[in-house]
Structure formats: C-alpha cells, structure tokens
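Here is a typical protein record:
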Amino acid sequence: MIFNKDTAEKTAELLLQINAIKLNPENPFTWASGWKSPIYCDNRLILSFPIIRNYVRDEFAKNIEKQFGKPDVIAGVATGAIGIGILVAESLGLPFVYVRPEPKKHGRQNQVEGFLQKGQNVVVVEDLISTGNSSLMAVEALRNEGANIKGMAAIFTYGFSVAEENFKKANIDLFTLSNYDNLLNLAVQKQYISEDQQTALQDWSVSPSTWRQE
C-alpha cells in the first residue's frame, strides 16, 4: 500500500528522471532469479542526488511517524537500504541498526548490526520489494533479537501478489513511497513510454515468472 498518491507519483517521476528505474519492454533485463523483466530498479542511485535523497528521506520520516507512530529504532535492510535508512533515522532523531542477509561467518557472528534492546519498537526501511522474501528474512532476524516490528516502509514495490501474500502471512504492514501502477501511469503521462509499451509492462506484472520465457 502506498502512503499517498501524490507522493507515489512524485517519487515515480524522480526515479525515472535519474534512471533509477529503467523501462525497456523491447529488450528486457534478466534478473538474478532468471526472470525476464521489462523494468530494472536501482534505488541506490538516489543517494547520489542530494535534492532527491532529501525528498525521499523527508517523505519517509513524515509518513513513518504518521502511519506507525514514532518507533524506538529504524532498521535498514542491507545493503540497499542502509544509506537511506540512516538518513531517516537521523531525521527522526532515532538509533539505527541494519540487518545482514545472513549472520557473519566470523567475530560475533551478528546478523543485526548495531545496538538493539529486546522489546524496542522498530520500523524497517527497505529500498525495493519484489517477492518480499529477503525483506521478511530481515524482519525474522529482528524478531529473533526480541524487536517489536511496527511495520516496513519501502521506496518502491512491483506489487506482485506473492509479495502481498508473504507480508500478510508474516503479519507485517507494508507501506511504500511508490509502486508499479503509479509508475506506469506517470510514465505514460510524461511520455517515457507509449501506451503499447504500457500494455507489455502490465502483462509482465500479471505473471513475471513466465513472461517471455521461451
């Protein structure tokens, strides 16, 4: 679920402007999973544009507090959400921790890095939601440390039904600054893509795992 439509449209436009999101249905990208995709999203680029990263920071901070109440800690999911998560935590005047994909193989073997007390209320910040599996693994790691997860806030989601199901099963509320539907509508309005390309992009979102698999 998006925080609000105005933010969703503005965020989508900014991501397109800096090529953090690229749309190319004619020459699709191949994800690590092997899926063919007409869209590629690299939200790490946001950090290189001060005005845009400040916008994302401020929208996160404002909407996180409005939706979840002010938490005790902000947690970022490594590696993509560490930078923006720190900015959000700084804006809210809160401690920050981040969650590795898996525990370190040496030293203290931490998966959650930073100081976290049992029972603290945590909002998790993520950069991108596809199936939601890696994001929810971070939630599980935080819960194993005794955190009370208030919810997750992400920059962008593809809106896959499998992600909605996964978050529902995990009992985690997910809110995003923007999503796939708002992106496509904005991309047509601003002539980043044609209506024919929009149709191809919509077809992909219905069945991304089988799209153009020959």
